[in-house]
Design goal:
about 325 residues; alpha/beta; 2 domains; two-stranded parallel sheet; NAD(P)-bd_dom_sf; NAD(P)-bd_dom; NAD; Protein CapI
Length: about 325
C-alpha cells in the first residue's frame, strides 16, 4: 500500500451489508479500511468467514475495534487518508432492543456521534450512513415517503436511527458535512444475518421445527435483495449528493417498492427448500410493524437505478448459498 492511498472507511465491514459493499468496492478497485468489533449478537463464525474473504484482497485493511472508542477512531482518521465513509456499524435488531437497550445507546448514539466528529474534523467528502425503515413506526400512509413525519418510533432501535438522522442534519447544517442517510427496507440474501426472519424461517423449515408467524402471518414487508442495495449505495458513493443542497443533507428510502405478504414469502421459501413449514400463528410482538412499503422514486431518479430482483430469484440465490454454507443436502 502506498502511503498516499485514499480509503473508503466502511464501519461494520464484517456485517451483512458491510461485507457485500466492501466486496463490491474492492472489485471496483477502491482501497477499503474496515472496522468491526465482531460482537456475539449473532454467530461470530459467519462474521469471521466473511472477513476471511475480504482479507484476500491486498487493498483491504481490517481493524478490530468499536466505534464507541473515540481514541481508536481518531487515530485511524489521522493514520489513513480517508476520503469517504460508509457507516453501517450498529447494534441491529428491533426485538433485542427491548432486552438490552444500553447496547443501542452505546453503539447507535455514542458510536455515531464519534463518527460525525471524526468526519467533521477531517473534512470527509461524503458520509453515507444506515438508517432504517423502522423509523416509520406504524405509519398508516403507504408507500412510506421520506417527507412523512417519523416522530413516533415504536422501538428503541427505531428511536436511535431517527436520532442518527437528526444528528447528521445538525452536522450538515453547522459544519457543511455532506451526509446521506439510507432507510433500509428488509434486506435479504446470501451471507445474511441469522436473526433475520427469512434466516429463522429457513432453519425452522429445514429442522421441521415450529415456525412462529407473528400477527398470524398478516405482515407485509418490502423485501430488498442485497445486490440491489449494494448497487444503490455504490452509485451514491460515485455520484455524491445532489448539487446546491443547503445544508448538504439527504435521506433516501432504499427498498424494492413491492411489499410481499409473509404467507407468500414463506411459500417461496418452502418451494425452494422443497419442504413444508410447520406454522405456528401468534399475536403481533411489541416493536413490530404490520407493513413496510418504500417510496423510492427520489433515489431512482437521482442514481438512475431501480431494484430489479424479484422475490423468487432472491430467495433462490439465498437458499443455494444457505445449503452450501451449512452443508445441507
Amino acid at each position: 500500500m502506498q502511503q498516499n492511498d485514499k480509503y473508503i472507511f466502511v464501519t461494520g465491514c464484517a456485517g451483512f451489508i458491510g461485507f457485500h459493499l466492501s466486496m463490491r468496492l474492492l472489485d471496483e478497485g477502491y482501497s477499503i479500511l474496515g472496522i468491526d468489533n465482531l460482537n456475539d449478537y449473532y454467530d461470530q463464525t459467519l462474521k469471521y468467514d466473511r472477513l476471511e474473504i475480504l482479507k484476500k484482497s491486498k487493498n483491504f485493511i481490517f481493524i478490530k475495534g468499536s466505534i464507541e472508542n473515540m481514541e481508536l477512531l481518531s487515530s485511524l482518521f489521522k493514520q489513513y487518508e480517508i476520503e469517504k465513509v460508509v457507516h453501517l456499524a450498529a447494534q441491529a435488531g428491533v426485538r433485542y432492543s427491548l432486552e438490552n437497550p444500553h447496547a443501542y445507546i452505546q453503539s447507535n448514539l455514542v458510536g455515531f456521534a464519534n463518527i460525525l466528529e471524526c468526519c467533521k474534523e477531517h473534512q470527509i467528502k461524503h458520509l453515507i450512513y444506515a438508517s432504517s425503515s423502522s423509523v416509520y413506526g406504524n405509519n398508516k400512509q403507504v408507500p412510506f415517503s421520506v417527507s412523512d413525519r417519523v416522530d413516533q418510533p415504536i422501538s428503541l432501535y427505531a428511536a436511535t436511527k431517527k436520532a442518527n438522522e437528526l444528528m447528521a442534519y445538525t452536522y450538515s447544517h453547522l459544519y457543511k458535512l455532506p451526509t446521506t442517510g439510507l432507510r433500509f427496507f428488509t434486506v435479504y440474501g446470501p451471507w445474511g444475518r441469522p436473526d433475520m426472519a427469512y434466516f429463522i424461517f429457513s432453519n425452522a423449515i429445514i429442522k421441521q421445527e415450529p415456525l412462529n408467524l407473528f400477527n398470524y402471518g398478516n405482515m407485509k414487508r418490502d423485501f430488498t435483495y442485497i445486490d440491489d442495495i449494494i448497487e444503490s449505495i455504490f452509485r451514491l458513493l460515485e455520484k455524491g449528493l445532489p448539487i446546491d443542497l443547503s445544508p448538504p443533507y439527504k435521506i433516501y428510502n432504499i427498498g424494492n417498492h413491492q411489499p410481499v405478504k409473509l404467507h407468500d414469502f414463506i411459500q417461496v421459501l418452502e418451494d425452494q427448500l422443497g419442504m413444508r413449514a410447520n406454522k405456528n400463528f401468534l399475536p403481533i410482538q411489541p416493536g413490530d410493524v404490520q407493513e413496510t412499503f418504500a417510496d423510492i422514486e427520489d433515489i431512482v431518479k437521482f442514481i438512475d437505478y431501480r431494484p430489479k430482483t424479484n422475490i423468487e430469484d432472491g430467495i433462490r440465490n439465498f437458499v443455494k448459498w444457505f445449503k452450501e454454507y451449512y452443508n445441507l443436502s
